[in-house]
Design goal:
Chain A: Its main location: other. The complex is a heterodimer of chains A (358) and B (320). Chain A has 358 residues and is of the alpha/beta class. Chain A is built from 12 helices and 14 strands. In chain A, strand 9, helix 9 and strand 10 form a beta-alpha-beta unit. The chains are: A alpha/beta (358), B mainly alpha (320). The interface between A and B is large, with 52 and 61 residues.
């Protein structure tokens, strides 16, 4: 090979890869693909009934001025890549609601890097965002940005995860699900499905994640209290991924073939468990599976009887986030912590509500 | 075994350690098997062995390529990302049928291997740096191609993932065939000898007139192609294309399998049988900890302990 040719080998190879990747791809049943994640269809969020004496916030107390939301610019900072149905649906919902209200929207995605999210938010402020909606990647480390936002009187609403700061001072309010409550409701479904007796396993989410901790706590506490004869005999991480969920379930059903139920802390791991049960020759409904999220695939699993129930974790923050901002900027009281009301999919409603799944 | 007996009669530390480095992995597999037979419910069943074999197949296939890279005194960190890229390519090309999809994934793996190999062989970049670039970039590319998990419903793919021939699952058969192929290439071909000579001493190999660059290029191409096959099989088994998580941390499992299997990181030697045993050891270790429901963090700690033991054995051998 001539020296030049040698140097070009790498470039050629990379081009080959790109050609392969884009050139004449033909994926399976392109038309039949379910269009998941559209923000406009399906149920937007509804706030749960506020408990009495819940703290509220007003523009006067927060320090700022009233403004007309329809003429304002809203900045949205997303934490993770839109690579999973939850994030896709969340961003789509925010975009759809902004469009519906005719609000100018600026968006940024931190690609799971916290330092990028901080600079994203700073960028959004300097680009002229009057209000911010943030889906935080972390709970801590927000002080510098919050100070900057406060100095420019930019109200902030955080969605899906909370940040460690003072509501109505550092930020206006938090809108999100109660993950402990999701765990409790999953436990209720499991108790109903198994008759409150037998052995269940938990497929945990990523270790150290607050969603994992809270969904586990809610489930275990409820089982302990309401169904002491239901034993949690197995608890291993599936890291919120289908492949890990499948591998762990395969080990589980080998060593404990008499397992009665599996609680998967997200849909993907539950679908992995279904794969494992299918390839082990089990029948649908043999092992009761309860999952959390409400993605289309999982709800389809309920329709097909492989999954017993799905507790929803609604990602469609758009309508509630914007109505909160609207109320706030027009001088009304808004809650400091707005817990959303999540639905559930059971054999009774899964078929009818399949279109609501994301 | 003769060496072991000799070691016991004349307690020569170095000899014992050398024996441990080469054969310790088999002892480890034996101990874990005995432990499980004694203490794990339902361990001795055909279905259980089938599960373990199917789960270990992708790790083993990737580890074979890694063994070649390490044998040439290099390393290939991009294998996990190649698996992600191949799962994306499956989603893109499955419309033409599973064989075309397999061809596309292998070509993708070869392309990544050519980039890695060219950087190492012709540009002179350190293998750890060259393949690190594609470890990061490869998964990025995979996610650009297929931004989110897509289901794979093709019946042919499904059969590949969960079907079997005479009771042996396809992924296991393919892994075994590749073990024989790589074993043959290392032991019986000119390529194998040249690879080991280069791993032993690159300057000497160059002085001896060996085609150092071509051989190195082939090593990384082989590693890329093997990782692509592993990605294809993992996709078939998962029945979904999931570039976000498929193959993540696979490079660490593969390196562990190779090193624990007795292939020295200093190159010049490739133990194919040891690599198979190393992969089986990791699989059994993970399975044992999961089946006994120990906290997940223990799996990582246990794996770390095994690596430290393996490296310790290697150190003693190096001292001799």
């Amino acid at each position: 090979m001539k020296p030049l040719a040698r140097r070009l080998t790498a470039a050629t190879a990379l081009l080959t890869a790109l050609a392969l990747a884009s050139g004449c791809a033909k994926s399976e049943d392109e038309a039949g693909k379910p269009t998941s994640g559209a923000g406009s269809e399906g149920g937007g969020q509804v706030a749960a009934e506020p408990t009495k004496g819940a703290k509220t916030c007003t523009v006067g107390r927060y320090g700022g001025e009233k403004l007309d939301l329809s003429k304002a610019t809203v900045g949205f900072s997303q934490s993770e890549k839109e690579a999973n149905p939850f994030r896709i649906a969340e961003t789509a919902s925010i975009r759809a609601e902004a469009e519906k209200r005719g609000v100018k929207l600026l968006t940024a995605n931190a690609q799971s890097q916290f330092s990028k999210q901080i600079s994203d938010v700073q960028d959004l402020i300097s680009k002229g965002a009057d209000l911010l909606v943030i889906a935080p990647l972390n709970s801590d480390g927000w002080e510098p940005v919050l100070k900057q936002a406060a100095s420019k009187n930019v109200p902030i609403v955080t969605v899906d995860r909370q940040i460690n700061a003072t509501a109505c001072k550092d930020y206006v309010s938090f809108i999100g699900s109660d993950f402990v409550q999701q765990g409790r409701r999953a436990a209720d479904q499991m108790i109903k499905a198994t008759g409150g007796k037998g052995k269940v396993a938990i497929l945990l989410g990523t270790p150290g994640n607050n969603v994992t901790t809270e969904r586990t706590k809610g489930f275990r506490d409820r089982i302990k209290k309401k169904a002491p004869e239901l034993d949690v005999v197995f608890q291993q991480t599936g890291e919120f991924a289908r492949e890990k969920g499948q591998q762990v379930t395969e080990q589980l059903i080998q060593s404990k073939p008499d397992i009665d139920g599996i609680y998967a802390e997200n849909d993907e791991m539950g679908l992995g468990a279904v794969n494992a049960l299918k390839s082990a020759g089990r029948k649908a409904g043999d092992v009761k599976i309860v999952t959390v999220d409400g993605t289309r695939n999982a709800v389809q699993g309920v329709v097909d009887k492989w999954i017993h129930g799905v507790i929803e974790s609604n990602p469609r923050f758009g309508p509630l986030a914007f109505s909160t901002l609207d109320d706030f900027t027009s001088g009304k009281k808004v809650g400091q912590s707005i817990v959303i009301k999540d639905g559930a999919y059971t054999p009774a409603n899964a078929e009818r509500d399949l279109s609501k799944a994301f | 075994m003769a060496e072991a007996v000799a070691g016991r009669i004349a307690p020569d530390r170095a000899a014992v350690h050398s024996w441990l480095q080469a054969y310790g992995v088999y002892v480890g597999v034996g101990v874990l098997l005995l432990f499980n037979v004694a203490f794990t419910d339902h361990f001795l069943s055909a279905e259980n062995f089938r599960t373990q074999a199917v789960q270990v197949a992708p790790i083993l296939i990737v580890a074979l390529g890694m063994a070649l890279a390490i044998g040439s005194e290099g390393i290939d960190l991009s294998v996990g990302s190649v698996m992600a890229l191949s799962t994306s390519l499956v989603a893109l090309y499955l419309g033409y049928g599973p064989w075309v999809a397999l061809l596309a994934t292998v070509l993708g793996g070869i392309a990544i291997g050519l980039v890695n190999g060219s950087l190492v062989a012709f540009v002179g970049v350190q293998p750890i740096v060259a393949t690190l670039a594609l470890m990061v970039g490869g998964r990025g590319l995979a996610l650009v191609l297929v931004p989110q998990l897509e289901d794979v419903r093709d019946p042919g793919m499904r059969a590949l993932g969960s079907g079997d021939l005479l009771g042996v699952p396809y992924p296991v058969l393919i892994a075994l065939a590749l073990v024989l192929l790589v074993g043959f290439a290392v032991r019986r071909t000119t390529f194998g000898r040249q690879l080991l000579a280069i791993g032993d001493s690159r300057p000497a190999a160059r002085l001896a007139g060996l085609p150092v660059r071509r051989v190195l290029l082939c090593v990384y191409v082989a590693s890329g192609a093997l990782a692509a096959v592993a990605g294809f099989l993992a996709t078939a088994r998962l029945q979904a294309s999931d570039p976000t998580s498929l193959g993540s941390l696979m490079e660490l499992s593969a390196i562990t399998a190779v090193v624990v299997g007795g292939t020295p990181l200093s190159g010049g030697r490739v133990r194919v049988g040891g690599t198979v045993a190393g992969a089986v050891l990791i699989q059994l270790l993970t399975a044992t900890l999961i089946k006994h429901d120990l906290p997940p963090s223990w799996t990582q700690i246990a794996q770390a302990a095994v690596i430290v033991l393996a490296v310790y054995a290697a150190r003693e051998r190096g001292k001799r």
